[in-house]
Amino acid sequence: MRMAIMAAVLAVGLAGAAGAQDVPSPYDAVDPFIGTAGKGHTFPGAVAPFGMVQLSPDTDYKLLREGYDWASGYRYDDPTILGFSHTHFSGTGHSDLGDLLVVPQSGELQWDAGAADQPGSGYRSRYDKASEVAEPGYYAVNLTDSGVRAELTTGVRVGLHRYAFPEGRPARVLIDFRPSIYDYPGKVLWSRIRVHADGTVTGFRETRGWAPGRQFYFAIRFSKPVTGYQLRDREENVPYRGFRQPGRTPDDRQQVEGRQLEAAFDFGEIDAPLLVQVAISSVDEAGALANLESEGGAFDFDGLRANTRAQWEEALNVVQIEAAPEMRTSIYTALYHTLIAPSVHSDADGRWRGPDNGVHQADFTVHSTFSLWDTFRAEHPLLTLVQPPFRNADMVNSLIAAQRVSPYGILPVWSFAGQETWTMIGYHAVPVIADAYLKGLPGVDGEAALNAMIASASYRPYGGLGDYMDLGYVPIDREPEAASKTVEYAYDDWTIARMAERLGKADVAAGFDRRAGFWRNTFDPQTGFVRARLADGSFREPFDPTAINYGSDYTEGNAWQYSWFVPQDMAALVGAMGGDAATVAKLDAMFDFDNSGLDYSHAEDIAGLIGQYIHGNEPSHHSAYAYVFAGAPWRTQARLKQIMDSQYHSRPDGLAGNDDVGQMSAWLMFSAMGFYPVTPGSGQYVIGRPFTDRTVLNLANGRRFTIATEGLSDDHPYIQSVTLNGRPLARTWIGHDEIMAGGELRFVMGAEPNTAWGAGPEARPYSMSTAD
């Protein structure tokens, strides 16, 4: 696919050139291999927009030995494929899932994976790299050792495999239900595989992984009759605990239970491809069977593939992009990655499993996989522009529903499969809800939303919140990562204040506005950095602003990154830094910092360094836009080009860091259009600079918003002027309501910076202290 795209774009030159023809469609411009090497941690397999099933190849078992580079199950340069499993994260810095590994086999039955450097030692197979095809909703590859041509496609809750076996060799499918590439010994608490009289296979497993107590159920149907099967518990020295009918041999059971299960299904020699339908559920086996019927009743691979392709085409065509070929591929792939999660979690009948491990009924589609510390920044704001209101309402209502049944009465922190992982900090479901509601999202109960937000911000046992409310900051001698927690809580509190204000609750708004100013309690005017304080009020010593040590003062970062996290009041931060000139100088010092004497090899997720700016991790993501708040938007324009040129590429290692369930991609998507949501909840986007010749947003309300660029080139990186609907725009922000009204934002670019445009205080975006 990648070669076809490049051939097409090279044939026509720049996509944005006048009269350009035959450029790839948005669908064909997507390259799912971007991010599958380097630190991107994406997967290339088949998935529908926000699909419950992510059906993708898994390549190796190195995770426990070599870190999280295999967190998505696939590495572009790995020489073998183990099989194809049905659940994957897109670009996380942690691992789990990889449920239900399906392995097509021909020849002798192999129960174990074997070694990558010993072909034939197990069921893993080498594969023909040139045969690999990855498109939205489709994946295919030739497995050379087994001789199988494997094709994958998905619906929302169903995965469909098509295996063409070599002529004259027996066809077999192995299910490996043991701890997978993502797992560790003892992760599987219990599991079951059962074969029904009609040949349907169902089962479940419960795991104590990243999300403890997660339950996974499946249902499988084959397009051809099974000629024989074996069910095995591979755990050593454990008596057999499964059901066995009288007279059956141990390898001819109808059901097996245990912690190390495998199953092999034989089909003999077949003269047509074998199709394997798999549906999943977090509720029960009946739910998986119902999901199978809801969209997988017929073994119509091409029909399901076409239907999912149509869904992707509709989703991707919301944005029409004219840009240089590689940039266009990067942008459309970024858009694709932002539409994988949060994924559908409820079954076709509306049932879903919540954080209380109970089963609940919903009248909307429940979503999960909320990487909120990452995605509140740009992923969710992007979805309010490119997805219909019902989808965004489903996500917001999913957060509120999870809070309602949470054993702790709080909103999700980092959840998947409905379960809480307690990963990362803050209560960032709050800005996701507030940003969407304040933009006028229909279908959300504002009172219920505000109550859920307040509950999360008032749960004293969580992350030092009790001290934060009492002292005005989180003390480092009582709570790790205290400096980061203080500033992130303060921003979240500001969004609660705006929500309360909208709902006419002035007293609530005043209380949370006060808390929104607590960031000042961590800012040290002597050093100009946000720092951790002790319970006695003193700053912790010694202090090194470049130090990155997990569990210490900051979360996946240091003082250089976190000192800019005051998105609710950047004007006040500029004042605390010493004014415009001092702020610009400090930002330049961060980007131009000499790292040659520093070693960050111990720090996972620290990738994409430009000085002390770390684009591969989220705390830095708004920092390039901070120049705008200090009256130097031309410096933002220069830094954005520096970031784009060094951190994004249209190749497998094209993401500088973990995509983090779409956040890295959302940054690219926004920044390519020319603006970015520095402060979700403000209703504003801060203008950076465009990287496309033309971008058209086909909005859900039927209107179109166009971003047009004149004179864009590598040697014209600076904005000369901006107009909105034909009128000069002197300010450095655009409102969400202005975009939704439709119209045109036009940039004129040039070789030299226009240092006068957007420099004055009156031109600057929202800040809490200057809002009036």
Descriptive tags:
772 residues, alpha+beta, Beta-galactosidase, Chain A, domain 5, ten-stranded antiparallel β-sheet, globular, GH-type_carb-bd
Sequence of strands across the biggest β-sheet: 3-6-7-8-9-17-13-12-11-15
Q: N- to C-terminal separation?
A: 53 Å
**How many beta-strand segments?**
37
Principal-axis shape equals: globular
CATH class identity of the domain at 35-312: Mainly Beta
Judged by helices, strands and strand pairing, the structural class is: alpha+beta
- Uncertain ranges: 1-20, 239-252
**Computed CA radius of gyration, to the nearest angstrom:** 26 Å
Structural notes for this entry:
The protein has 21 helices and 37 strands. With 772 residues, it is of the alpha+beta class. It has a ten-stranded antiparallel sheet. Strand 32 (694-698) and strand 33 form a beta hairpin. Helix 11 (446-457) runs antiparallel to helix 13 (482-502). Residues 1-20 form the signal peptide.
List the helices and strands and how they pair.
Layout: H1 2-12, H2 26-29, E1 46-47, E2 54-58, H3 63-66, E3 80-81, E4 83-85, E5 101-106, E6 125-135, E7 138-143, E8 148-154, E9 158-164, E10 171-176, E11 188-195, E12 201-208, E13 212-222, E14 228-233, E15 255-258, E16 261-268, E17 274-281, H4 285-295, H5 301-316, E18 319-322, H6 325-338, E19 343-344, E20 351-353, E21 359-361, E22 367-368, E23 370-371, H7 372-375, H8 379-386, H9 389-405, E24 414-416, E25 419-420, H10 429-438, H11 446-457, H12 465-471, H13 482-502, H14 506-516, E26 523-524, E27 529-530, H15 559-562, H16 570-577, H17 580-591, E28 609-610, E29 613-614, H18 626-629, H19 633-647, H20 663-673, E30 675-676, E31 684-687, E32 694-698, E33 704-710, E34 718-724, E35 727-728, E36 733-735, H21 736-740, E37 743-750
Parallel strand pairs: 33-37
Antiparallel strand pairs: 1-2, 2-4, 3-6, 5-10, 6-7, 7-8, 8-9, 9-17, 10-16, 11-12, 11-15, 12-13, 13-17, 14-16, 18-32, 19-22, 20-21, 23-24, 24-25, 26-27, 28-29, 30-31, 31-36, 32-33, 34-35, 34-37
